[in-house]
Write a structure and sequence with these properties.
Rossmann fold; alpha/beta; Esterase-like; 10 helices; single chain; eight-stranded mixed beta sheet; hydrolase activity
Amino acid sequence: MAFLQCQFYSNSLEIMTSVNVILPEKIEGPLPTLYLLHGLSDDHTVWGRRTSIERYAAEYQLAVVMPAVNRSFYTDMAYGAKYWTFISEELPERVRSMFPLSPEREYNFAAGLSMGGYGAMKLGLSHPDRYAAVASMSGAVDSTRLTRDEFVNDMTYMFGTADQLKNSSNDLFALANQVSTKGVVPLLYQCCGTEDFLYEDNIRFRDHLTQLGLALTYEEEPGEHEWGYWDWKIQRVLSWLPIPNRK
């Protein structure tokens, strides 16, 4: 695999930004692509430092795109930059202009941990026509609850008030309601350790998706909010992805 570090000016963010990309060294046609998203206290380098994602992805001839989004919660912030516009619109266009990545829905996936699990679910539920499958590991999936709780200051900068967030395009529960009425819905994967501080949030979101009849693979087992768990579960996510022509 090849590991590339990219810096470019983002028109959405109006600043220079960084993206790490993993590519197969022998490329045969447009590549299936996984957008792999980081958590609140991390950056675009963390997946490469804390897991063996480069080695894991090699088995699947999969491109992995790891962007930096700071403490944005993958949203056009109430008091900050337009990170949702960047991650959902600008980033795919930019990386496809630089690398041989497939634009086809069946070749595009998203996954992430914690804040990144929220981001991955948001991509899939907001744009079911663009992603075949998305995965959340220990995801911060109930952003409305977090706005009222321990992350209230962070969440206010990102979303505004809890009332502004609820039932908006940043509310995963509302997005799930909307996508359940559409003909095209991505496959969904969700996991969380039973000792994780976000476990109860994940149970609520799991039950909501199940009640809507969405195609959800849910897994739980003993585990906390830490990298040993995520290094293990990203391997499970890669094996679960419906990559066409998997070797």
